[in-house]
Amino acid sequence: MKPSCWWLVFVYVTCLHPSLILAIKRIIVNYSSQNLSSVPPGLEPSTEDLDLSLNHIQTLSGKDFSTTPRLHFLNLSWNVLEKIDMDTFNSTPALEILDLSHNRLQNLSDQPYLLKVGNLQFLDLSSNMFSVMALGKEFSILKHLQWLGLSAISIGNEDFTYIANLTLKTLFINTDKLQMYEERSLMGAHAEKAIIALSNKDLDIAIADDVFASFKEVEFTKVDSEMKVLQQIRQRGTVRTVSLEISKVETTWEVLTGCVNTILSSAIQQLSFSELTMTKMVNGRPVSSSRVLESFSTRRATVTQFIFNQTELYDFFISMPARNVSLTQTPIIFMTCPQTVSKIEVLDLSDCALTENIFSVGPDTECSTLTNLEKLVLRGNNLKHLGPLTSRIHLMSSLKYVDLSQNTLTYSEEQGKCVWPRKVAHVDLSSNGFDQSIFKCLPDSIRILNLRNNRVTTVPADVGVLEDLSILDLMDNRLLDLPTCQAFPNLQKLLVRTNSIHSPLPGTLETCPHLKDLDLSRNPFICTCALREFTALINNRATQTPGVTLGHWPEGYRCSYPESRSNSMLKDFYLPEISCNGWILAVTILMPTITLVVAISLLCHRLDVPWYLKMMWKWTRAKHHAITSQKKAEDMEGLRFHAFVSYSQKNTDWVKAQFLPKLEGDCGLRICHHERDFIPGKTIVQNILRCIEQSRRCVFVLSSHFVQSEWCHYELYFANHQRVMRGMDSILLILLEPLPLYLIPSKYYQLKAMMSRRTYLEWPQEGAKQKLFWANLRAALQANLPIPSEREEEILN
Predict the structure, then answer these.
(1) Domains along the chain?
(2) Residue 98 pairs with which residues in a beta bridge?
(3) Does the predicted TM-score (pTM) go above 0.85?
(4) Integer Cα distance of 78 and 57 in angstroms
């Protein structure tokens, strides 16, 4: 058999009766309502709490719980138990809560299994088949017992002898099947509180008589409609009871008001009703006693009559002479103002159906008789507008605490100015519909403000200064940033858990010099550079700054974005300064770059890389030009030379030693040289023109001597004229030495124009560079010229 709902996590269990003070918060193994006839075998050794209620288990053997040494809670109620072996609980030394109610056990004097449960704190044996309530000797060892539930057919004077030395917290007696009660029998039991489930028989009177004489706290359930048991208070000379609770009763308005007046004339200080049903709302008696109760409360009251005088009902409760008055979970829609100055100091009207017209006297008159009221609780009503509500309570001059939570309250300036009592220090406005406008409707004297679970998105900058505010709760709102303390200079505790704060500004905390407690947990932090400084600040405050407590640190502070950091804790979030500081990042990137550029520039300068690049560019252009401008074979007719060289006589050595050998010998080019190729007998001009016409290119070796030569000038002139006639770029300049333009005579204006708008080759002095120079020159001069025949040579010559 498997348990249904095997693990019920964090379940609160209250055994038998709601007044039980022993509640557990544990993991329970639940075998309830499984139609079991015996305890299931193989229970886990880790089992601490076990529910076997609502089954058909008849007997318990010594081996049933042998595997559960950690068993703490055991519920066997509503079975058919008749026998429990004395060794049943040998292996359960930790058992503290045992519920055996509603079974068929028959002899209270013979329960030997109790000898093995010395740590028991709660024991319920009520609603069994005991004939007498004579407790056996085994009850005397239950030194830790706090709650005991019993029932029997008869109760006698000696029944509680074996627990006479015990003082229980609660004694529960179910008299449903009681047939005989011996007077003064309950005086043998000692407990702080007695809970008596009455039987609506004459025996109830005798039991109530003894209960009032023996116990300080008394609770009666299932009281008859005439409330006869309460009449014993008036007849007894001595009443030990100071706290009386009546639950599950249906009565008339006349009987209820009469019984309340009876109790007011007794020594009882605390009176409460729960699950009260009122019928026949007529002939009620007003409060006639001036004795002041410590507290008067009514919970879950209803009226069955549809039409009745509601004002009489409200007046009765609000006129109650008690310091603490509570009327809760009751569908009242109004509460009147006391006709005389009230003694009420605490008034709880929570979970009703009240509106902001509460206590209203007239259009221009507010309630002025609740001047002793210090605490007002209107939680869970139908309140909607805060402005008018403050007018209802502003004459309550002693009011310090106001709870208006769990309503649908809002505030806007259209509602008018808020007028609070001057002593209000604690206001609970949680679980309403307030936005940031609420900060314009707060009392100046406020010290504690609870605005949890509202719609606040920001704290306005124009809020009036609240000097006394020390605690501000803004949890579960819609805040986008951390509020500053400029309006709250003495704030000590700030709670902004579960909002929409992504990247709070670090300077905000600097405005809160007195802050001691801060809770920023469960916000969707965006872990980027914007959060870096704030994270460092709260890290410092959480670990180093004395006197500052960061709530739920570090588990409650996690990144929501980016995805790579999602759900990681804020204490582990780190971004280096360089990632977030633009100047540092720029310097870090630029410095190596600049250094590299400078180094490369120096290296290039050292190795003369620009010159090489320049020459490589020229060579590339020359090759490209040679390919794109290559002429057809018929266009090459008449050309004998690749180039005609023009130079000054003073540069003859370079031409003969470098130029001609490199181009003619190594490159196989045909160069027209005047000393070799000029035809004797012809004029110089004729030879120059002939050589230019028969050469594909004209190479001019420029130097300071070149611009001083007249013949060089003529050659340049004729070559330029031939370039224009041919329509092709046939001139190539070689700069043998630096030649500034200002050194060139004005008559060489054509040379100046050429040097300013076209590239030229520079002769390098370093031997390593000269190979590239010759390669560029060869690329510029290379062409497939036709080889002239001997006959053509003769004709041309």
Answers:
(1) 642-769 (3.40.50.10140)
(2) 74, 123
(3) no
(4) 9
